[in-house]
Design a protein that fits this description.
By secondary structure, this protein is mainly α. Helix content is 82%, strand content 0%. Keywords: Membrane, Transmembrane, Transmembrane helix.
């Protein structure tokens, strides 16, 4: 049963990591697209901060979720937190 829980958690964290990685790439591309668009300066800076901020935060969440998922996947079964 523990193996099933570990595999399910690993798959879930990998899926969450991939989703946030896609979100970060999408918002980063939108931020780069806004660079060449003609619009009011103040609104453009708000969009810069939003798109690149969302991209960076999404990338950090993705890296964290994937790292925890890979740690669960490749950690040995003999080691537990209680030992």
């Amino acid at each position: 049963m523990e193996t099933l829980i570990n595999r399910t958690t690993w798959f879930g964290l990998s899926a969450i990591g991939a989703t946030f990685l896609g979100i970060s790439v999408l918002f980063s591309f939108l931020g780069f697209y806004i660079i060449g668009v003609e619009m009011m300066g103040f609104f453009k800076w708000i969009l810069y901060i939003f798109f690149f901020g969302t991209g960076i935060i999404g990338a950090l969440i993705a890296l964290g979720a994937i790292a925890v998922g890979l740690k669960m996947r490749f950690s040995s079964n003999g080691e537990t937190a209680e030992e």
